[in-house]
From TrEMBL:
Residues that bind FAD: K52, T140, G141, S142, D303
Residue span(s) of domain Pyridine nucleotide-disulphide oxidoreductase dimerisation: 338-443
Highest taxon above the source species: Bacteria
Segments forming domain FAD/NAD(P)-binding: 7-318
PANTHER family on file: MERCURIC REDUCTASE
Sorted UniProt keywords: Disulfide bond, FAD, Flavoprotein, NAD, NADP, Nucleotide-binding, Oxidoreductase, Pyruvate, Redox-active center, Signal
InterPro entries linked: FAD/NAD-bd_sf, FAD/NAD-binding_dom, FAD/NAD-linked_Rdtase_dimer_sf, Pyr_nuc-diS_OxRdtase, Pyr_nucl-diS_OxRdtase_dimer, Pyr_OxRdtase_I_AS
Molecular-function annotations in GO: flavin adenine dinucleotide binding; NAD(P)H dehydrogenase (quinone) activity; oxidoreductase activity, acting on a sulfur group of donors, NAD(P) as acceptor
Name listed for the protein in its UniProt record: Pyruvate/2-oxoglutarate dehydrogenase complex, dihydrolipoamide dehydrogenase (E3) component
Originating organism: Loktanella atrilutea
Leader sequence residues: 1-24
Cofactor(s) needed for function: FAD
Amino acid sequence: MNRIKADVCIVGAGSAGLSVAAGAAQMGASVVLIEGHKMGGDCLNYGCIPSKALIASAKHAHAGVENPQFGVEQVRPAVDFAAAKDHVRHVVDTIAPVDSQDRFEGLGCTVIRDNARFISETEVQAGQTIVTARRFVVATGSGPFVPPIEGLDSVTVHTNETIFDLRERPDHLLVIGGGPIGMELAQAHRRLGCDVTVIEGAKAMGKDDPELSAVVLDRVRAEGVTVVEGTQADRVSGADGSVTVHTANGDFIGSHLLVAVGRSVNVDGLDLEKANVSYDRKGLKVDDNLRSVSNKRVYAAGDVAGGLQFTHVAGYHGGQLVRALMFGLPAKARTDHIPWATYTDPELAQVGLTEAQARKKHGSKLSVVRSEYADNDRANTEGRTTGLIKVMVVGGRPVGASIVGHLAGELIGIWAMAIANNLKMTAISNTVLPYPTYMELNKRAAGAYFSPKLFDSALVKKVVGLVQRWIP
């Protein structure tokens, strides 16, 4: 048995683990990085990167349908589904070296490619190696949750871990789950020539602002995706090539089945009990500093920390832990400034409180200001006039922003920055932006906050009147 001592031992080479490993190693700490599967984790191999690459192919396929208003003849492109998957693989392979074992060994990490399990409060075993470390970071992420639906074992069930390897185009894709992953992949497959039916037990995109999610759902339905809400999948039958999802509201028949109902954290096999690390189905039980409440040597980062499950949150956790592990500084992790985006077309993005959450928390102190895409000059030039921005403001500062429309995932950034840094609305309204850009939507929203105070105020008009009398 090989034995290694380290300052930091990281279990999991996804976004969180790689962020900690890179920072700690480059600052001179001895780092052991353990990964039992693929370097780069879920995001690179099964999540953010392949899904956005497939969405990009789908956008190109759909572009010909939207051409007439620009004086270009409408065309229906011939889609090579396998070639679209080649594009996905090429993108993953292009980015992979950044997350590779070679790169991290070059940074000074000892990388072990095997499954890890705790054998004591101070030791982890991976294969034939035992690592003793001063601190441990559990960053094992999450995987697709497959619910115990009767009959699932009789058919091929695709999740985000397998759907990108499918090279034959489904004739009719059934999607169980109408959340962000389900809706993104449903629209992408529809644009690539598949019939698609989404079956959602509650409300599709139900965690988002209902006014904004309705804009997305209207567009997705208009493109031909059947979205069935309030319908639980009770049972599945059939065989590969002909799958039936049985529900109380009828049966739905397709050629392929994708399950996208949520995520479950990866804690199985870690033997956390042997390290005296408390956990539940949401992940490790940690304090605000991402530190285990039961074993102070152990930290968690990313999905397994039990909070928001986004790649950028995992990276944020990694940065916070580098501060804590390297310098002993507080690593209190916030969530109020964390944005997220759903990459449907139109996109939907959120940071901070939604309108409903803000009204519940702040009541009459809340102001909600809006900016419509239809009023933006750049949106009009490109025919992207469907969408809006809502900003929730309390005491002159934004506490939340919701955006639906073209580039929503990009536009949300300025509101995330404002909330993270406690900026006032004047910081946005005072910013001079190039014209014409979509970013002006954000400035227009900020201006909408001040307009009533300036233009509808009797006091302001009285002051202006007095000044005008005395100015020579």
